[in-house]
């Protein structure tokens, strides 16, 4: 196996590592594939097998050590854009029909919602502005 063959084998290895990356969506395979490309570059420059393997290992380990913790941190974060009922919590609404502890109607985000007061002793009359505290099913809990 001469130097030209070595870089080709490294590229074949990189492509082979790319297949499980796509199939399993495990980024570690991609980092190993980048290490194999680095090995191909070193082989193309004429360095020996030991140097090629050391470069492959160094690049792969460095990528896994640096990129993997960053990716894990980002996967644990909740999305910054609230959607669905989470986007409605904390918004203001206008009372359409009297709202008390047992029910009523409000206009929230351009839609009519059933609502109930958080404090069962409070009563909100039509036209009053209320804050949405929570959404329970199809009912907004307001205060």
Descriptive overview:
The chain has 143 residues and is of the alpha+beta class. Helices cover 50% and strands 24% of the residues. The chain has a 5-stranded mixed β-barrel. The longest helix has 28 residues, at 49-76. The radius of gyration is 30 Å and the shape is rod-shaped.
Helix content: 40-55%
Shape: rod-shaped
Strand order of the largest sheet: 1-2-3-5-4
Helices and strands, in order, run as: HHHHEEEEE
Number of helices: 4
Rg, Cα atoms, Å: 30 Å
Report the sheet with the most strands, covering strand number, pairing sense and barrel closure. Answer: 5 strands, mixed, barrel
Please tell me the overall pLDDT. Answer: 91
- What separation lies between the terminal Cα atoms? 77 Å
Total E-strand runs: 5
Spans of at least 5 consecutive residues whose pLDDT stays below 50 are: none
Residues in β-strands, percent: 15-25%
Give the helix/strand class. Answer: alpha+beta
